[in-house]
Amino acid sequence: MSLLKTGVLKTPFCQTKKLARNLLETFPQGEMLVEAYRRDQRVRQLRCYLEVGDIYPAEREAILRDFGAVCMNTQLHGAGIFNLEFVAREIIARGVEGVFVECGTWRGGSLGLWARTFMRNGGDVARCPIFGFPRERVTITKGWFQDTLPLKTEAIGKIAVLRLDGDFSESTKFCLEKLYDQVVSGDTVIIDDYGVFPGCQRAVDEFIAARSCRCGSSTSMSPCTFSSSPEGPRINSKLN
Predict the structure, then answer these.
(1) Does one domain contain both 186 and 132?
(2) Is the N end or the C end of the chain the one with fewer CB atoms within 10 Å?
(3) Residue 212 and residue 216: Cα distance in Å, rounded?
(4) Does residue 170 share a domain with residue 224?
(5) 40 within some domain
């Protein structure tokens, strides 16, 4: 109400930014209030996505709670969140053993969301340990893919879900070539930037063609999920 009374919504954008800065400087809790507002907006957007698609109605509130806990640390939106929920349920239903590996991350929010989703759906961390949750299972490696992956592939072992967020052609191609053969047959590779960056999409398309992978859905707006062979891992796309 106070923002409306001060006329913020009728103020030019540049002046609105200045006013917002002044408000943050005036009120010690300003940054906390802004973050709470942004968190609430992101959760509302996801609620709308789930309700419009009638997605997992019985689990909707639990999904929203999990997303609310990590949403300030991820840029995932509706379809990408649904993608992780779907894959987690499938992995658990099939009793797959293997790790969740993510190559490329911003603040770790997608990994945190996967962990919460996996455990909420009854996932057994002993059978499918998650690189990121619980804390003692965290393995974070900083550096370029070409410098770090060759040192880690053996330690990683079997992969239940491989999620790539490398943005570009060479980084995506390198991760696929290094890790794809460790993905358990019939399991999932998620390409975050498929349909967003042309180089990434080209690298994935060429890899799929060369390896006869089984593809999931993909669109011009999203990343992808696929498999190693007709019976192998599935590469799927996730919409942003």
Answers:
(1) yes
(2) N
(3) 13
(4) yes
(5) yes
182 found inside a domain: yes
Q: Are residues 76 and 35 in the same domain?
A: no
Q: Does residue 59 form part of some domain?
A: no
130/166 Cα distance (integer angstroms): 20
- Answer whether 71's CB lies under 8 Å from 80's CB: no
Query: Phi then psi for 152, rounded to 5 degrees?
Result: -115, -15
- Does residue 117 lie within any of the structural domains? yes
Angstrom CA distances, 22 to 13, 18, 19, 136, stand at 14, 6, 5, 42
Q: Which residues contact 10 (CB under 8 A, 6 or more apart)?
A: none
Instruction: From 193, 189, 194, select the one nearest 177 (Cα to Cα).
Output: 189
Tell me which range, 47-51, 108-112, 219-223, is most confidently predicted by mean pLDDT.
47-51
- pTM metric for this prediction: 0.75
Same domain flag for 127 and 39 = no
Helices (runs of H) and strands (runs of E) counted in the chain: 9, 6
Distance between CA atoms of residues 43 and 40, nearest Å? 5
Return mean pLDDT, the chain. Answer: 78
Tokens of 93: 């239903």
Which amino acid, residue 154? E
Determine contact, residues 66/119, Cβ cutoff 8 Å.
Answer: no
Q: Structure tokens of 180?
A: 């794809």
Range of the domain at 221: 68-237
Count of domains forming the chain: 2
- Residue 227's beta-bridge partner residues? 214
Q: Based on the fold, state whether residues 24 and 131 are members of the same structural domain.
A: no
- pLDDT (tens digit per residue) in 78-115: 888 888 888 889 888 888 888 889 999 888 888 889 88
- Report the distance separating Cα 212 and Cα 50, nearest Å: 33
